[in-house]
Amino acid sequence: MSLTESKQNRHPGNYVPKQPVHIECSIEKALDVIGGKWSFLVLRELFGGTKRFGELQRSISSISPKSLTDTLRHLEENGVLERTAYPTVPVTVEYTLTPKGEDLHRMLKEMKLWAAKWC
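Above: the chain's sequence. Below: its structure in token form.
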């Protein structure tokens, strides 16, 4: 039996080669959860405690209201922060980090130290 015949016998006509296995990168997952560039600044502010929308906007002066809203929604959808609305006129909304969000503090602190050293 030739080598070609041997390979054909082992793999019938309906043989489909395996596709490469995609292994998700945990860093990529973390960045997806955190979101865009504004997320880091929002998180920095919330590490100091619960904040309202206006407080966040004042402390991150270069962010537009739309970008802040989008960032807060993204972080809420990913379980990083919790939004609490109070039935006042106008409605009072507060944002607080969840335990998942609090766990980011150490990582962002290390990034800050790295930037201070190298940037």
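Residues 23-118 form a domain with the Arc Repressor Mutant, subunit A fold (CATH 1.10.10.10).
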